[in-house]
Amino acid sequence: MRNNIIRFAALFCSASFLFTGCANQSSTAEKNASADSGVEAETESGSGNAIDNTSINEPQEKDEKSAGVIQFENEYKAISLDDEEKGIHYGEISYELIHIKDSGDEKSNGVDLSNLSEALEELDSEIENNAKGSAEEYKKEYAEDDYFYTDDKDKNIAEFSFTSKILIERADDDAVSLLLNNYEYTGGAHGSSSYVPYNFNTKSGQDIVFSDVLKDTTGLEDKVVAILKEDYPELFEDSDSTFSPEQTARDDMNELASNPEKASNPWYLTPSGVDFIFGEYELGAYASGSQFVELSYDENKDMFNSDISYGEIPDGSLITITSQGKVTVNGKELSIGSTYDEDSQAYTYTTTYDGKEIELDAPENAYFAYNYVARRGEKYFLLTEYATDNMIPELSIYDLGTGSKLPTTYEFSLQNGINNDLSNLTVTKRLDALSTVDATISASFTADGLLTTNGQDYTILSNFGGPNADTPDAMAHTLTAKKDIRCVDGLIKKGAKVRLAKTNADEKAQTITLLLSDDSTVTVLVETKEDGTHTIDGVDENELFDGIQYSG
Question: Residue 449 has what pLDDT?
Fold first, then answer.
């Protein structure tokens, strides 16, 4: 048996929704704009992901924003790398930016957020510059090396891909902690994933340094190593005499304790403590992924400064559980883990809360799980999202107070979007809309543990292929008109390239908005026949467009 981290965090998949053989990436783009480095596309979020269950049509809950919850919105951008002369698409750069929602007011719960807003603007600039720099590097490498593509025009897998996503680990009146999760693939068997933490003082916008968090680092090495050995025993069982993960961890903690004023050290804040990150290859082989260790405030109060509050998930918020092992929720221990049986090649997931095991309903083909905790008033919920072989996620919700699963299972992901505010979540659904696509819509999480969508239209994400040549990405992000196509509100000329923008997701009469090259839009009505085929104005869709692909 081998213990595996619950949040492999793009070890084989990016932190995105597209689960194609656990190797593909999903990123988002809606609006085309020409750029020197390729075609740059941009959409603003606020529309979230799709949901599939009866609660969608129930009355939406309009809760007031709870104290301590800062509302954010994200902005997706993408750079497409194309050789227009050869008709080759050879790479994608996708990244995510973060803004304070309605930041013109610059206040939330009486706290002035103007300094934090400026700090996030600097972070966004850094992320964007890094993405554009990567694009230039890929363009140069492509121009100098013919290895990536030959004359095989049917090969449609991006050899270069870079995805940058933002995870909110903590966001309240005292501290905002973000994790930048970068995934890069430049050829070979697999890509690489890394985490860059950012910790901001909410009021000043300044970096929080380690000495702001821990006033006493005595015994820090021993505590962190002990947690590592409990949560990741396979790292120590499999190590040989030439490499010592324990010594590496001790050296890292010594370095951290010796430089407590550095803001770039690998740690971040959670509502219940401080988490340390050990990256890929640092403590084990690539298959071991990254490790996360939480030093909880409740168990180590004497080590922590009192300037930053701990121990409570703000009411109305969602937090991501990046650590395997134990975290504190409402003053009680939540333990999350998984094991892999090499004989059966199956994963087993286990969760206990306050000493009681929660019976999980993981599907048999689940190879990965993401975990979140939501708080509504005095009720706490565990949200577990499973990635499955069929690339359709299953999300189950458990009431931590009763230890029971709520009746509805959702086929959606929380892996796209800035998700910390339960009144403004972004959820992703897989749809058939002139191709199999991922689409997002805004949603709310109610006090009863239900997810309800906010509005009707789903924003269609542009989907980019990943590195696994055995499972090419079946997602189309651009279609080409084979003939003149009459639309509900206009005309698409033969040869025009269109990008899928949004849909009402109706299974039988689906309106789909298409973005033209001049940024104007047209709408087509796609009807689904009893045999499952799709028509536009009575004509089979495949007679009208090139590039339509559906995944099974």
Answer: 94
